[in-house]
Design a protein that fits this description.
The protein is built from two helices and no strands. The chain is mainly alpha-helical. The chain has a domain of about 45 residues.
Length: about 70
């Protein structure tokens, strides 16, 4: 496999050209996305807490039948 070699100056020019093509999110989009992430992680945390509590209660109930 042959990899094209580029000198450092050309590499940085290419990086700059590609970075100029990036469409960066606005502040509003960033804040909205961050809020959605916090909401979703909270909901998932509560969901898994409920599932874990349910399994814990089921296991304790099953172990209580043994004694």
């Amino acid at each position: 496999m042959h990899v094209a070699r580029v000198n450092p100056g050309e590499f940085f020019r290419q990086v700059r050209a590609e970075t100029a093509k990036v469409v960066w999110p606005t502040r509003k989009e960033t804040v909205t996305t961050a809020i959605m992430v916090v909401i979703m992680t909270t909901l998932l945390g509560l969901f898994f807490f409920a599932v874990d509590s349910g399994f814990s209660a089921a296991v304790k109930a099953l172990l209580g039948l043994l004694s």
